[in-house]
Amino acid sequence: QKEVEQDPGPLSVPEGAIVSLNCTYSNSAFQYFMWYRQYSRKGPELLMYTYSSGNKEDGRFTAQVDKSSKYISLFIRDSQPSDSATYLCAMGVFTGGGNKLTFGTGTQLKVEL
Amino acid sequence: DAGVTQSPTHLIKTRGQQVTLRCSPKSGHDTVSWYQQALGQGPQFIFQYYEEEERQRGNFPDRFSGHQFPNYSSELNVNALLLGDSALYLCASSSGRNTEAFFGQGTRLTVV
User: Fold this and answer.
1) CA of B12 to nearest chain A CA: how many angstroms apart?
2) Are A46 and B103 within 8 A, CB to CB?
3) Tens digits of residue pLDDT in B84-104
4) Which chain B residues have a beta carbon less than 8 Å from that of A99?
5) What b-and-e string marks burial along B56-91, b requiring 16 or more CB atoms within 10 Å of the CB?
6) B19-53 burial, b for 16+ CB within 10 Å, e for fewer?
């Protein structure tokens, strides 16, 4: 079993829709959580970072963490064609000796006009 | 403010050869991590450098080695290349104990 599970999609939605992207994890030691957006053949771009259960909002994006269920989500409101990309969840453990990230496989999102 | 820069952007090598990839971290960052991303997969952690030493390592063979220079830039070396080493190699930088990691555009390595 992978430490981080993410549905690869593809997920296709109409412009303006609310998008929900999800990851589950098995390692209860994970303490901080990130969402990255990756356009085709480009490097990942950090969208959201959080380390506590609950919601964190930034513009059209909301990151949600439920540590008791080992489940994280990213919501995108008023989705735009420019949001079409692969979304990667990543998580790690606070240590004094490094900050290795464990990634999901990524969900491919297409927002259609 | 320059972000994380990687060179080269693309590279084609023959099986058995050696390759060196380079990374300059974001201004103000002193920690560099390397990841391998196969097509359709998430990035996999290779190793991390801080204060010119390897601080943490993922599940990669010794053919993968690295170095960090006093100016915090880093190199990833891969020896005896295999076809399976074909991937996007990503460099991420962060600052000390700060866990937010920022990625470069990657180097796409093709082994033929």
Assistant:
1) 16
2) yes
3) 999 999 999 998 777 789 999
4) 31, 33, 48, 94, 97-99, 101
5) bebeeeeebbbebeeebbbbbebeebeeebbbbbbb
6) bebbbbbbeebbbbbbbbbeeeebbbbbbbbbeee
B46 close to A (CB below 8 A): no
In the prediction, which pLDDT does A94 show? 77
pLDDT at residue A97 in the model: 64
Q: How open is the CA angle B95-B7-B35, to the nearest 5 degrees? A: 55
* Residue B50: its H or E element: strand B44-50
- Classified as helix, coil or strand, A103 is strand
Q: Which helix (H) or strand (E) holds B45?
A: strand B44-50
Contacts of A8 in chain B (CB under 8 A): 40
Could A105 and B105 be called an inter-chain contact, meaning their C-beta atoms sit closer than 8 Å?
A: no
